[in-house]
Write a structure and sequence with these properties.
Chain lengths: 1093, 369
């Protein structure tokens, strides 16, 4: 069973499909998928059914389909065309769009799948299509080509059995990464007989475990371990290497790249939730309208002579129909008649608005960063308006608040502080080949200094680019390491590079050589990394560098005491500190470690855990040499941005993995904490004070802080007296360990209690700093806040892989196109080059998007309510016979043509307050907080407005029709004239209402608003000007033109439009000067005042 | 519906990345265009409603609406209108017996005579309407029960009327022309008006039956199949509507007013918006400039009572009305205009006060941008 188990979570690959004689019974290779990439969703054959199925899975489309079917089946007042046409239009447009996208995908797929590759067959490279590659094929790749599938590197043209790749298209890191061939494989691949056993495909780009069994005749099979350094990923590009040979291990949809591009979970915005709530209300209105009409219809028909007067007999079929069935179909008919109250077009318009609107972010030149030559990136358009609703911002520190551009500032060796003397001209520090250390106080032994610098030069994974013409620079995954290596260079120790496991250091003029034996990689849990090197003289040394918390427990206590003070002082100054330690390994110790490491690396299962265990075992009993301090400068305008966010009523939380002191100083620098901010600490340090049990102390502290911030807060008091003592700002600091205690308290009852206390404290603090956070804890915090009372809208911003979890968790995830690769950007909803862009993104774009879409939604419901209400009222005058008031053409075109464009233009272009004003006055942002424009009061206002308009339209025209002789020739108007008058008033009122709301009239607004009205008039004239052969009834023939010939009609239309808009004109004027509009007025006043006086 | 596009975009991105041969770097600058539209900086007019800007508008509206309203009201008041109900519900009313004894099968028409007095003379042209109440011409089943292509002279529709005409589509195996409930229920009372001179002689007032239908209806929308000649032959294979006394080609002697283009018929076919309605019946043209069209005095209305309305509790009226530029008598418009105008004026005053108070607090509040 063990074997089968292994079979399940690992795969065996026969290199070159050669069975291995020595291996145990040849197991026929299971079928792996081919190398075809299929990103397309549809084929020609399944496009129609699959696409339709997917479209009708949307609840709105399904609803409209049902309405349409009812219209087809039941004898309904409006023809199926009225609802079928819009639905058809929507479905067709969406299908075309999705079809086109899929066609693009097919094209891209084909391009990839037909890409020519060379596959080794019988030792000769044979040209093949990329899609024909099978697992086990040996593939040849030349320089600057991309790898067609995931390959294990077997041979490289370089002498040192390495090759360089860039993974720019995978994770955006453009540096060259070194990959290694499998050690000791035969040069002659023809005679190589080997199998590779590796794990099943999984999406983590940086993880791979496997081993290779090499069979040689008459020998025990040799086993080599395989790691990510042997794996060449599909999508990466070969650089600096003429050609390589590799064996395909994962192909097609099982490559790591393909596995990585599987969808993210969909985020829904608050606006969408509001829409759904409103929809429900309207659905209720719709149902009750239909119910009322059905009931009244049967009451009415019970009166003698009304059911079937002699002039209007029923058809035989109607007579035969069962009464209850008749009632039911009547109900459905009313539903159909009133169904326009829930418009298909709203969905289309909302989608269009979001889709088109999101372009403005990408187009904004203020988001363009000349350094990286990129602007903002929009990954989803669904959340545009959410940007205007953010209540909590969770920001990463390194790379987000700070530049992640490290500068070596000072170091401390054996407790003595060294500061580089020429810090003012730090930029040309590279040119200094020999920089004497300026000793501030005393000086450590020369030997110790050199040891320290050697440690800096050796303990890293920095590469020196091989290309000689390139200007001297270093490439590393972490900017700290570059800063340290450069720092060492300034003191005269230059790292020359790594060549075939030998590290070269230029020490003044001597070249020192070290054999690199092992690299104990950095990982965020251990928070340290080590190298084991062998000197010329044969000594084996281990150098380790890492965070103080991870180094201190592993060195002697007295050494710690000497250095701790310096580390803490550097940290309070906002520097990033690293401690450096070393250890001499005896031959036996090294043997032991070497064996352990190799074993762990060969392990197929739990390799990570095993490696960590060995690392921990090796990295003990070291002695501390010193510490370094590296400055991470603040991002441009970080402080201004944070201030603006706080001014906008947004709570900013800093979530960082960094030390508390460093993070705190950054917070001060960013003005998140002010000088007068009282800091409340909930950290391991405060918990361990007074030698009490942590749990008790936690309880005590939580209660104390809660009392301070919540119960005694001036906010609570101001309810009684408006001018109490000035607000005391609180800042809250919590660290990972304490947070774990809060969230996972020993008893369940405490957990929820603590959680509540914790949240309440946080909510009453101006800024919260969470330090020493693991990536998962960041997400936990976000989730905690997200699910707290009032479900506030959260935004996470970060630049690194460690921020991905919180970016995905928050309502809105923002990635910064920083230096730590592209993972954050890839997983974000929006990506911006710099933190400072967040201000405009939220305060200007977010605000405007929210106002636009909120207005759009309210307006849509409003305009359909006043559209359908007259039709409902008309039922009371036509014997509840489902007679539509408007002609079918008007019913269909109302939402599609006559009233759709102005609101779309509005929702794309409106700037009720100018962008600059929004940026200047951050407080304006809080005016729309908490979904202010889509809450029930504004909804009710709009609904009442719709009802008022509907009533006015209907009864206004009803009074006009008190005398049917409207033209001056005594002739009379009929029911279609009635409907057309109501409809004309409706179209004009609804459009002019929007015109009144428009505060930003560009030529497009003018064009669209006046154009729509003109189009309506022209269309009506045209529609009524011709006997349409395809219409069975010429209902509107010359109705519109005749209507215009009557002076009374004109007068009544003008009167009704004016009367409808009167409250709209009046309300903003009478309203007290508050809210954004008024404030802008005031602002303009002050501006004009300064101009005039 | 467009939400998925972004995923697609991403995927496209990765393909172009992986497919770019030799990883050709994207050299194209991604710097956004600095156009006014893309930067959302299109020049814009930014109106702001303040008391200051709205105020003059209110006064202007008030000042325009009140005179219009007064004009409308006066005009409406000057319109003479006389209305008489001749349904015959009352025992005392002249048409009581006709209404009571109505039978679809009777071949002879029932006649009744109503006397009435016009207190004031009707100057200018007088329009004679018949009015029906509680008659649901706007009932859905009724409204759609017609075939416009048949009425437009379409031959195939003549012999094979639309399904919508059911149950008034076929009669005795022949297609009905004109088909449908509307046509079938054509108002067929005949009204004749006499001026009763002082000496008791009845003086018939000439009623013009042309010009009562919309011009476009008469000339375009309604057409006899095969022209206006030989109507009898054209309608040979059709049946008259069940409730009609005469076939459609015998509606009038005048070939220009016969068949589908009979104006009484066209007027009826324009379905009314409300269950109480009036339709133009005849026009009494003004003859001389000195004599009123209808002088004050006694009149006699002769009614051929063919149209039953009591079965559905309906009423029939005869209306005489003069017409002004604003149409028939309708005091509503004038009152509405006066009211709205006054409200606007009043609001203007209120706003002026508000504005004035606001003004004292901060100067320059009304400077619009």
């Amino acid at each position: 069973t063990r074997r089968t188990m292994e079979q399940l979570d690992s795969r065996t690959i026969y290199i070159g499909h050669r069975s291995c004689p020595a291996s145990e019974a040849f197991i026929p290779p299971p079928k792996f998928c081919d190398n075809r990439i299929v990103s397309s969703k549809y084929t020609i054959w399944n496009f129609l059914p699959k696409n339709l199925f997917e479209q009708f899975r949307r609840i709105a489309n399904f609803y409209f389909l049902i309405i349409f079917l009812v219209q087809v089946i039941v004898d309904t007042p409006t023809s199926p065309v009225t609802s079928g046409l819009p639905l058809f239009f929507v479905i067709i447009v969406t299908a075309i769009k999705q079809g086109y996208e899929d066609w693009l995908r097919h094209k891209a797929d084909n391009e990839v799948n037909k890409y020519p590759v060379k596959v080794l067959e019988d030792g000769k490279p044979v040209d093949k299509d990329s899609e024909k590659i099978k697992v086990g094929d040996v593939v040849e790749v030349k320089e600057n080509e991309t790898f067609p599938c995931d390959l294990i590197l077997l041979q490289s043209s370089r002498d040192d059995n390495t090759c360089f790749v860039t993974t720019a298209s995978l994770d955006g890191e453009s540096n060259h990464k070194t990959h290694y061939t499998v050690p000791d494989t035969e040069k002659d691949l023809d005679s190589l007989s080997a199998t590779i056993e590796c794990e099943q495909p999984q999406p983590d780009l940086y993880k791979f475990v496997g081993r290779m069994h090499i069979y040689k005749s008459n020998q025990e099979p040799a086993v080599r371990s395989l790691g990510p350094e042997n794996l060449l990923l599909k999508g990466a590009t070969l650089k600096n290497t003429q050609k390589i040979l590799g064996v395909a291990v994962y192909t097609g949809m099982e490559t790591k790249m393909a596995l990585n591009y599987q969808g993210k979970s969909q985020k829904r915005s608050v606006v969408e939730k509001s829409i759904n709530a409103f929809l429900l209300v309207y659905l209720c209105i719709l149902l009750s309208k239909a119910l009322v009409c059905t009931t009244l219809k049967y009451v009415f028909q019970n009166k003698p002579g009304q059911d079937e007067p002699w002039y209007n007999e029923k058809t035989q079929r109607e007579k035969d129909t069962n009464l209850y069935l008749k009632m039911f179909t009547d109900f459905l008919s009313f539903m159909v008649l009133f169904n326009f109250i829930i418009p298909v077009s709203m969905y289309v318009t909302v989608e269009m608005q979001k889709f088109l609107g999101s372009f403005f972010i990408g187009w904004d030149k203020d988001f363009y960063d000349p350094e990286i030559k990129e602007g903002a990136l929009v990954n989803t358009s669904d959340l545009n308006e959410e940007l205007g609703q953010v209540e909590y911002v969770f920001t990463d520190k390194t790379g987000t608040l700070t530049q992640n551009n490290m500068e070596f500032i000072e170091c401390c060796i054996d407790g003595f502080q060294y500061k580089y003397h020429d810090s003012s001209s730090e930029l040309d520090g590279f040119g200094v080949t020999y920089g004497p250390m300026s000793k501030l106080q005393q000086k450590a032994g020369w030997e110790r200094e050199e040891l320290f610098l050697r440690a800096l030069c050796l303990c890293h994974t920095v590469q020196v680019p091989s290309a000689p013409q390139e200007e001297k620079g270093f490439i590393a995954s972490s900017p700290d390491e570059i800063a340290l290596v450069k720092g060492a260079m300034r003191y005269g120790f230059t790292f020359m590079g790594l060549e075939s496991k030998t590290m070269k250091i230029l020490n003044k003029n001597d070249v020192e050589m070290y054999e690199l034996l092992h690299v104990l990689n950095f990982d965020p849990v251990r928070r340290r990394m080590s190298v084991i090197v062998r000197t010329r003289s044969g000594d084996t040394l281990l150098f380790c560098k890492g965070a103080d918390s991870s180094i201190f427990p592993r060195v002697k206590l007295e050494e710690v005491e000497r250095i701790r003070m310096h580390v803490e002082r550097s940290a309070t100054e906002g520097y990033r500190t690293l401690c450096v330690a070393y250890k001499c390994l005896s031959a036996e110790e090294y043997e032991h470690a070497d064996k352990g490491l190799k074993e762990a690396r060969l392990a197929l299962q739990d390799r990570e855990e095993k490696l960590t265990a060995v690392y921990n075992q090796v990295e003990t009993g070291m002695s501390l040499i010193g510490a370094t301090a590296v400055e991470d400068r603040l991002q441009e305008e970080a402080a201004e941005t944070m201030e603006a966010l706080q001014g906008a009523g947004i709570k900013v939380w800093v979530l960082t993995g960094d030390k508390m002191e460093t993070a705190k100083s950054t917070c001060y620098a960013c003005r998140l904490f002010q000088r007068n901010t009282e800091l409340l600490e909930l950290t391991v340090r405060t918990l361990e004070e007074r030698g009490r049990r942590r749990e008790d102390r936690l309880h005590e502290l939580l209660l104390e802080y809660h009392k301070k911030t919540v119960q005694d807060s001036p906010l609570a008091k101001t309810r009684y007296s408006s001018w109490s003592v000035g607000n005391q700002d609180y800042g809250f600091i919590v660290d990972g360990a304490s947070l774990t205690m809060v969230l996972n308290s020993s008893s369940d009852s405490n957990t929820s209690h603590y959680k509540n206390l914790f949240l309440q404290i946080c909510q009453n603090c101006t800024a919260v700093l969470c330090c020493r956070m693991a990536p998962l804890q960041k997400a936990q915090i976000v989730k905690l806040v997200k699910n707290s009372k009032g479900s506030p809208i959260t935004l996470s911003i970060g630049d690194g892989a460690n921020d991905v979890s919180m970016i995905l968790e928050a309502h809105v995830g923002i990635g910064i196109k920083g230096k730590e690769g592209r993972q954050a950007v890839r997983n974000s909803d929006y990506a911006i080059p710099k933190l400072k862009h967040l201000k405009k993104l939220l305060l200007a774009h977010g605000h405007l998007y929210y106002v636009r879409i909120a207005h759009l939604v309210q307006y849509f419901f409003y305009k359909n309510l006043c559209f359908i209400l007259p039709q409902f009222l008309y039922q009371f005058f036509c014997g509840y016979s489902q007679q539509p008031l408007y002609d079918a053409a008007y019913l269909t075109m109302y939402n599609i043509c006559f009233t759709s464009m102005p609101i779309l233009a509005y929702s794309l272009l409106e700037q009720h307050i100018g962008m600059e004003v929004l940026l200047c006055n951050a407080t304006l942002y809080s005016d729309i907080a908490k979904n202010a424009m889509l809450r029930w009061p504004p909804f009710i206002y709009w609904t009442l407005l719709g009802v008022y308009h509907g009533l006015l339209f209907f009864f206004g025209v009803r009074l006009l029709f008190g005398n049917l002789a409207l033209p001056d020739n005594g002739q009379v108007f009929g029911n279609w004239s009635y409907g057309t008058i109501v409809f004309t008033v409706l179209v004009f009122t609804v459009t002019l209402k929007l015109a009144l709301d428009t505060r930003h009239w560009t030529w497009i607004n003018h064009f669209v608003i006046w154009g729509s009205l003109a189009f309506y008039v022209l269309f009506s004239l045209f529609w009524g000007g011709i006997i349409w052969p395809f219409l069975s009834q010429q209902r509107l023939y010359f109705v519109f033109a005749n209507m215009l010939s009557s002076v009374s009609t004109w007068l009544v239309m003008i009167l009704l439009v004016l009367l409808s808009l009167l409250p709209e004109i009046l309300l903003p004027v009478l309203r007290k000067p508050r809210g954004p509009h008024a404030r802008q007025v005031q602002l303009k006043q002050t501006r004009t005042q300064t101009l005039y006086f | 519906m467009m939400a998925s596009s972004y995923n697609a975009k991403e995927e496209d991105g990765h393909h172009s990345g992986s497919a770019s041969h030799g990883g050709a770097a994207v050299v194209k600058s991604k710097k956004p265009d600095n156009t006014a539209f893309k930067q959302q900086r299109l020049p814009a007019w930014q109106p702001i409603l303040t008391a200051g800007t709205v105020l003059p508008a209110f006064f202007v509206i008030g000042l325009i609406f009140i005179p219009i309203g007064i004009g409308l009201y006066v005009t409406s008041n000057n319109i003479k209108e006389f209305e008489i109900d001749y349904t015959g519900v009352d025992m005392n009313s002249a048409c009581y017996s006709c209404a009571k004894n109505f039978s679809w099968n009777s071949t002879t028409s029932c006649l009744c005579t109503v006397d009435f007095t016009l207190e004031q003379p009707f100057e200018s042209n007088v329009f004679m309407y018949y009015g029906l109440s509680n008659f649901y011409q706007n009932h859905r089943r009724y409204v759609k029960s017609r075939d416009d292509s048949q009425l437009n002279g379409d031959m195939s529709a003549l012999t094979n009327p639309s399904k919508e005409c059911e149950p008034y589509r076929m009669s005795e195996g022949l297609p009905i022309a004109p088909c449908g409930a509307i046509a079938n229920s054509l108002f067929n009372d005949t009204l004749k008006l006499y001026y009763l001179e002082a000496n008791g002689t009845r003086n018939e007032i000439p009623l013009v039956k042309k010009g009562i239908a919309w011009w476009t209806d008469k000339h375009v929308k309604f057409r006899n199949p095969g022209g206006n000649a030989n109507l009898t032959a054209v309608f040979q294979a059709t049946s008259k509507p069940v409730n009609w006394r005469n076939p459609v080609y015998e509606l009038d002697q005048d070939p220009e007013n016969n068949g589908f283009i009979n104006e009484d018929f066209i007027v009826w076919m324009r379905t009314a918006a409300l269950p109480t309605f009036r339709k133009l019946y005849r026009i009494i043209q003004k003859k001389s400039s000195t004599m009123p069209t209808l002088p004050s005095g006694k009149y006699v209305l002769d009614i051929t009572y063919n149209y039953p309305v009591l079965s559905f509790d309906g009423r029939k009226r005869m209306i005489l009305s003069t017409i002004s530029w604003m149409g028939g008598k309708n005091p509503f418009l004038g009152i509405a205009y006066i009211t709205v105008g006054s409200i606007c004026f009043f609001l203007g005053v209120v706003l002026l006060i508000i504005h004035h108070k606001y003004d004292t607090r901060s100067t320059g509040a009304d400077i619009p941008n």
